[in-house]
Amino acid sequence: MKNVVLLANPKSGTGKAAKYFELISEEFKKNHVQIVSILADSAEATSKKLQEVLSGQVDAVMAIGGDGAVHLAIQELALSNIPLYVLPCGTGNDFARTGGPLDLDVTRAVKRMLETSPVEIDLGRTESEIGTRWFGQVLSTGFDSLVNERANRFSFVKGQIKYTIATLLELPLFRPYRYEMVTPGGTRKIPAMLIAVANGASYGGGMLICPSADRRDGLFEVMVLHPVSKVELLKVFPKVFKGKHVSHPAVEFIKVAKLTLESNAIAYADGEKIGSLPINIEIVPKALRVWETR
Length: 294
Prior knowledge:
The chain has about 290 residues and is α+β, with helices and mostly antiparallel strands. It folds into two domains: about 110 residues, Rossmann fold, CATH 3.40.50; about 160 residues, Sandwich (Tumour Suppressor Smad4), CATH 2.60.200.
């Protein structure tokens, strides 16, 4: 391995990504690896620069950050032969967590990249009003998407607390959506509080929304939360952190390789806004090569 792209948002993880960017750069130099640095604050600037450098000779990409950095990287790396390593410096780190214990040791990270082989994993691919987008973990629509939407408008609040505030503000206003779900098995009209389409088991910083999701099995695990009272929603939602919601009578799981969701709703994937429904979603087996820490 001779050429590695280092991709980081210096603001990610309240400055942690910038710190580890310097450490990992030095470690690569010790091992005589050439690096190309992409340090940008905006998604647009990062994507443009990554497209430019990937047109040259690149052996691997390291994303230094959280799920936002990963989401940007996989838009360019999906279906390529260029592998991805994630140094988990973000807030959620769910993509990295799915691949094993979170590890910020820069010496081990570089050694792993130089001495071990990446594995192939599935990705989700969506077609919606914004075109084609890829996701690595979870696409969701319903209550949590509205919370995300509200939280993103809080310029004065940072960190996880803004999602707690957004949840409390959104809950009194929320009403279940009526979805039409089209799968190879047929069409269903489903009232639901939330629908999560999972390639990996967790989102939101370790919430085990679909504990049995496996990013190497060629299938999504889809969770449908059917309508419950708001009091019951507050009881069920905290259980997601340990995957204890799976036995609740209002929770349904479905395994599919592709589906279409229609409703007057929005969707987020890997914490990023995908846009308004309708949306076509399919699994693409072995679409990305990554290093894991397990």
